[in-house]
Amino acid sequence: MVRYVGVKHATGLVASVGIERFIIGLAQYIEDDFRRWPQFEKSARIASHSADGVIELMPASDGELYGFKYVNGHPINTRRGLSTVTAFGVLSDVSTGYPLLLSEMTVLTALRTAATSALAAKHLARKDSRVMAIIGLGAQSEFQAIAFKALLGIRHLRVFDSDPAATEKFVDNLERLGFAIDVAASSADAVIGADIITTVTADKTNATVLSDNMVGAGVHLNAVGGDCPGKTELQRDVLLRSDVFVEFPEQTRIEGEIQQMGPDFPVTELWQVITGEAPGRRSAKQITLFDSVGFAIEDFSTLRYVYDQTQGTGFYSDLDLLAEPSDPKDLFGMLSRPAQQTSRPLLAAVEA
Amino acid sequence: MVRYVGVKHATGLVASVGIERFIIGLAQYIEDDFRRWPQFEKSARIASHSADGVIELMPASDGELYGFKYVNGHPINTRRGLSTVTAFGVLSDVSTGYPLLLSEMTVLTALRTAATSALAAKHLARKDSRVMAIIGLGAQSEFQAIAFKALLGIRHLRVFDSDPAATEKFVDNLERLGFAIDVAASSADAVIGADIITTVTADKTNATVLSDNMVGAGVHLNAVGGDCPGKTELQRDVLLRSDVFVEFPEQTRIEGEIQQMGPDFPVTELWQVITGEAPGRRSAKQITLFDSVGFAIEDFSTLRYVYDQTQGTGFYSDLDLLAEPSDPKDLFGMLSRPAQQTSRPLLAAVEA
Question: B41 and A48: CB-CB below 8 Å?
């Protein structure tokens, strides 16, 4: 049997643990896996592009466990009342090839993206950061806010979205959770006084959510929304003034803000900052930029975490996804056993 | 909700339809998709190799539907009482990126492999073929026999396996199904008088299941077992005397019997024989060889077929694999709804 964690299980688990504690635990799993980055088999995601969006497979393995995520990205979906992103993932035992866990990952992707952003900021933002601007108040925004509260103690938010309904939803969702929220009149207004700026808009265009004049010395930029070819948020000049940190350069050069730059534009891999092999922030005046696109190892960590967290709980059910013949050489024999769903035995149905 | 077809559903469906009728219908879907081969987005499978085996992802899309299969191959598993191959697959709507179907594919892979073999033989074997030799009587063997009966009317089998228990299992499974089965004393004995020779052994070695002197004029070879690097069944000289037909050359040159040959060894793509763009068998003396490795489009066809066949039946259940927030921008709101599995609402669990 394969452990199945559906949407109800996942939301129930998060509620049971508490969302901040869940994100703190998840960030720890991600950090642990980033520390052993060279052990992983890594590849850029395998994308199938179409007119309306993309479907991707994101595999990763540490040699003992194998994980992959299926995820789509269809910005047009919100106009149809559907989600831009849906996702699920599978964790398997490398030694047998058998799947152990099948889990929804729409909710979990939002949590792991936020956990990774906050983990990067923990290593890159000024330690005295108190105020975060968030530009773009769609599906990912609340998760970002809560992760930065959980990992960095950020309680003061300055937020902007061109859609008043999205802004109202954001404030409604978070006002009871201990945040001071300033609703700004524009992106330029939102970033005033911010120590950290999170950009997380959804439009698939080369947008200028942040222009160069909006970014002051010492700021940490958490650029989440620019995550596929043709979808960026930052003016090119911002990148030229920043030290840029990435997950997996081969993927980020195609999908991230740095798709605007040449193939030799200097970047630092986040895992090397975490292990101490590369410097992170070196001065209070430096602009640090985490060019987040989301990498398969973060999903691998999430699947590991969910597998461990659901152990011994009621937040999963069992799926008969594995054919387990009593004799492995006798797969056919499974078909001649009386099937539960039919009264016609197989052999009678074969026209001899 | 995503339609879920587990092992019990799949075996129940096959029993309900009848295995021969099921294979005939499946072969028709595969043939239909081979006929429109150029419409597909194709790639060699994405493999993660380890000491004991391999885990692979096999995606394909026709621009309207997207499918992928997860499949492992661990020959060592039978010694552990586990299956060499387990598999599952997903079919999605390209326009939304939403999964439509999640299905077990261990049983279905055996059926689609056999259906593809018989489909190839229908186009390549002599029309007067009556006798098939099968060498290797493991999990795939009965499916091959039944597919060749269903599509080509083959009822006379000459079979060999070095494992007497596997042989006994094969005869037990098939003797009531209208076959005349000769159990041979060796591979060389099995092929005597055979019009079609199916090799479907499991060992991951460069084996010589068929040597050159065993293959007479006019035979069709259905080489199923040689399907990954370092795993072949035919002596090189057999290939030199044969006209070789393949699924997707880029993949077969790595995984098939032709891994023994140079990169320019001539092959014909099976889909071109089916559409009439390339010749198949041209004489009764010619040796034709289908170098089967299994390609993603066959799994895509299988998922399409299972989706259509389960429609309106009880052979599936619904999985809550998709987070469907009432407002797509309010994914977070799903977490604050009272979850069914917990009595603690999320907001109370957040340490404000």
Answer: yes
Q: Which of A77, A110, A325 sits opposite B331 (nearest CB)?
A: A110
State the CATH number of the domain containing residue B212. Answer: 3.40.50.720
Domain carrying residue B97: 2-107+298-319
Count of the separate structural domains present in chain A: 2
Neighboring chain B residues of A320 at a CB cutoff of 8 Å: 6-8, 104
Quick one: DSSP state of residue B176?
Answer: G
How far apart (Å, rounded) are the C-alpha atoms in residues B235 and B204?
A: 15
| B300 close to B90: Cβ distance less than 8 angstroms | no
Specify whether A142 is located in the same domain as A74.
no
Question: Which residue of chain A comes nearest to B63, CA vs CA?
Answer: A50
Burial A205-232 (b: 16+ CB within 10 A, else e): ebbbbbeeebbeebbbbbbbbbbbeebb
Say whether B333 and A173 touch across the interface (CB within 8 A).
yes
Residue-wise pLDDT tens digits, B331-345: 998 887 644 333 344
* Residues of B taking part in catalysis: 227
Give the N- to C-terminal CA distance of chain A in Å, as an integer.
34
Q: What are A51's two structure tokens?
A: 């007119």
Closest approach of chain B CAs to the CA of A176, in angstroms? 8
Rounded Cα distance between A106 and A92, Å, is 19
* Inter-chain CB proximity B50 and A73 less than 8 Å: no
Closest among B254, B217, B268 to B238, alpha carbons compared: B217
pLDDT tens for each residue of A15-38 = 999 999 999 999 999 999 999 999
How far does A112 lie from chain B, in Å, by closest CA? 13
Looking at the structure, tell me whether residues A86 and A183 fall in a common domain. no
Q: Do B180 and B169 belong to one domain?
A: yes
Q: Which of B59, B73, B334 sits opposite A57 (nearest CB)?
A: B59
Which pTM does this prediction carry? 0.91
The side-by-side arrangement of strands in the sheet containing A99-104 is A46-49, A54-61, A65-73, A87-93, A99-104, A2-5, A317-319
ipTM of the complex: 0.90
Contact B323/A86, CB-based, under 8 Å? Answer: yes
Residue B175 exposed, middle or buried by CB count within 10 Å (0-12, 13-18, 19+) = exposed
Nearest CA in chain B to A42: B48
A277 CB-near residues (< 8 Å, 6+ apart) = none
Active-site residue numbers of A? Answer: 227
Tokens of B6: 């587990």
Q: How far is A290 from chain B (nearest CA, A)?
A: 23
The reply to whether residue A54 touches residue B97, judged by beta carbons under 8 angstroms, is yes
E strand or H helix that includes residue B233 = strand B232-234
